[in-house]
């Protein structure tokens, strides 16, 4: 059990819902719009997507450790790290960490292969694309998360919005639908907001390690304004989803769960100590989970009536 707890911490399994919620939304889209739902394909999609997410967390930490982005934590007092510390403190060797990380990817790929047999080759392609984005988010030569030109945010929007929603929908129906793409945008943008706000906690450490996030490039004040823009885009995209028929009109009630997050911004200045961003990060996670779960309930209600 101790090893299992270590694995849960190393993989940051506590936030795997940011991947499972989009998968559920995509599968529910197939049920609501097409009257199709295969529970076994759905469960296998959840498994593959969930393991792919854990892989992305661990490969991110592995490459951040190799690139030196995590090792400076002891030297930078005003930085809050979210990695397990198993590599920096020697709890796990790099070899063990690597084996566990790639084992997750292997099982996720196997899930994609099985799904492609039953649903079509796009199921594998979409899953593989998500895996490649996760890997090259921090790995050379692309290192999307280190470039500071918006590649990081686009990668997250694709990996935690567009690909899981459209992939889960495709697995159930074996075809694409523009409504699935539009449905992916609100939850995808909110998940992107989680990652963006997470960078506020350790942007000085990122600067020290040469990791050029948008916060490092722009500075706190401009990055905070962009954070608000991401929230606004999520709000607008929910309205668009209703207008194109991806969601029923009463889905707009989900706007209410975003209000507490919006209120957090009023407590922040243009420059803040790292700990001041903890409520923003926590509010982002809570808002995204509540928003996504509420949309799931709304789609179930829509399907039943």
Automatic annotation (TrEMBL):
Segments passing through the bilayer: 12-33, 39-56, 96-115, 121-139, 151-172, 178-202, 223-243, 249-266, 287-304
Family matches, as InterPro entries: UbiA_prenyltransferase, UbiA_sf, UBIAD1
Keywords per UniProt: Membrane, Menaquinone biosynthesis, Transferase, Transmembrane, Transmembrane helix, Ubiquinone
Any GO BP annotation: vitamin K biosynthetic process
One cellular-component annotation, GO: membrane
Subcellular location: Membrane
UniProt KW Membrane keyword: yes
Pfam families xrefs: UbiA
Functional pathway: Quinol/quinone metabolism; menaquinone biosynthesis
PANTHER family attached to this UniProt entry: 1,4-DIHYDROXY-2-NAPHTHOATE OCTAPRENYLTRANSFERASE, UBIA PRENYLTRANSFERASE DOMAIN-CONTAINING PROTEIN 1
Protein name: Ubiquinone biosynthesis protein UbiA
Natural source organism: Paenibacillus antarcticus
């Amino acid at each position: 059990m101790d090893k299992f707890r270590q694995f849960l911490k190393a993989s940051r399994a506590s936030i795997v819902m940011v991947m499972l919620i989009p998968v559920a939304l995509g599968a529910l889209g197939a049920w609501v719009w097409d009257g199709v739902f295969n529970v076994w394909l759905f469960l296998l999609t959840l498994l593959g997507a969930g393991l792919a997410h854990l892989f992305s967390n661990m490969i991110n930490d592995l490459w951040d450790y190799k690139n030196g982005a995590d090792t400076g934590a002891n030297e930078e007092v005003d930085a809050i790290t979210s990695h397990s510390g198993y590599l920096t403190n020697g709890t796990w060797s790099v070899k063990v960490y690597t084996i566990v990380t790639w084992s997750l990817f292997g099982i996720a790929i196997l899930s994609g292969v099985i799904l492609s047999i039953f649903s079509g080759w796009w199921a594998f392609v979409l899953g593989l694309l998500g895996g490649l984005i996760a890997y090259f988010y921090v790995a050379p030569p692309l290192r999307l998360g280190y470039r500071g030109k918006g590649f990081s945010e686009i990668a997250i929007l694709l990996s935690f919005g567009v690909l899981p929603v459209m992939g889960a929908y495709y697995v159930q129906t074996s075809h694409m639908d523009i409504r699935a793409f539009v449905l992916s945008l609100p939850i995808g943008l909110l998940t992107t907001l989680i990652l963006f706000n997470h960078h506020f906690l350790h942007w000085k450490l990122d600067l020290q390690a040469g990791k050029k996030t948008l916060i490092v490039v722009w500075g706190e004040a401009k990055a905070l304004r962009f954070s608000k823009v991401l929230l606004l885009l999520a709000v607008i995209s929910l309205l668009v989803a209703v207008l194109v028929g991806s969601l029923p009109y009463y889905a707009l009630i989900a706007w209410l769960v975003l209000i507490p997050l919006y209120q957090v911004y009023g407590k922040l200045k243009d420059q803040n100590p790292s700990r001041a961003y903890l409520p923003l990060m926590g509010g982002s996670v809570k808002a995204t989970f509540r928003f996504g779960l509420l949309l799931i309930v709304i789609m179930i209600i829509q399907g039943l009536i």
